[in-house]
Backbone:
């Protein structure tokens, strides 16, 4: 069954660069959303398009699958969770299948002439968690990783992979709202400090009064960071 899932071609929403394409950004949505939904939400929060002169932005949509926190109801999620908590095991089987599917997306960009060190991966909530698994366990040669309102479980396979790693790791840009009641700010903070202790260069940006949502200040800060990691 898992082998069949790997041949999935993800639906995606793509925003082409205004000029010559020399870098790519893969932006993963949160649970129950879609690539198009995330793109629209970002544009509403910013009150303008999230576009770049040279960076292609790819918003893939997670396939629909049974999701345990919804009592097995179907949802567009990157992987399953036993519960929404940082203190339980990861559903590694579903995470690993999706790492392979998203690797196909990265490989597609490389085949089109974009070097791995000109590709950023990141996401909101579950999308940020998926991006950390994708980069730190499978693609340590990407340009960087970003995680907005995201966390890793206390015994995450990401931590285990980094304990065995001795290469240069992609930098992490992480943001979290202090008023987040779904994914607690402390979970994000703890994730960041463990990753830092394992050799990841990272800064943790807190946004006072922000719930489990995107904010304009956060997206503007993200855009600046993207341009430092992927200069024209």
Residues:
């Amino acid at each position: 069954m898992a082998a069949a899932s790997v041949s999935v071609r993800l639906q995606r929403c793509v925003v082409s660069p205004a000029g010559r394409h020399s870098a790519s950004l893969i932006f993963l949505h949160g649970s129950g959303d879609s690539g198009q939904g995330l793109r629209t939400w970002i544009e509403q929060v910013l009150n303008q398009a999230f576009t770049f002169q040279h960076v292609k932005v790819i918003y893939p949509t997670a396939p629909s699958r049974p999701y345990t926190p919804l009592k097995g109801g179907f949802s567009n999620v990157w992987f399953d969770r036993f519960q929404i908590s940082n203190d339980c095991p990861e559903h590694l089987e579903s995470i690993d299948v999706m790492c392979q599917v998203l690797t196909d997306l990265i490989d597609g960009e490389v085949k089109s002439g974009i070097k791995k060190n000109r590709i950023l991966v990141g996401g909101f909530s579950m999308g940020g968690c998926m991006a950390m698994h994708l980069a730190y366990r499978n693609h340590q040669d990407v340009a960087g990783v970003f995680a907005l309102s995201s966390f890793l479980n206390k015994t995450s396979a990401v931590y285990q992979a980094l304990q065995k790693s001795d290469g240069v790791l992609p930098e992490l840009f992480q943001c979290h709202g202090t008023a987040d009641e779904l994914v607690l700010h402390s979970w994000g903070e703890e994730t960041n400090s463990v990753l830092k202790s394992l050799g990841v260069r990272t800064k943790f940006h807190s946004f006072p009064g922000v719930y489990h949502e995107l904010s304009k200040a956060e997206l503007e800060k993200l855009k600046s960071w993207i341009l430092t990691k992927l200069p024209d």
Notes: The first helix runs from residue 2 to 5. The chain has one domain: 13-229. The beta strands are 12-15, 23-28, 55-60, 64-67, 73-76, 119-124, 144-148, 171-177, 202-207. The first strand starts at residue 12 and ends at 15.
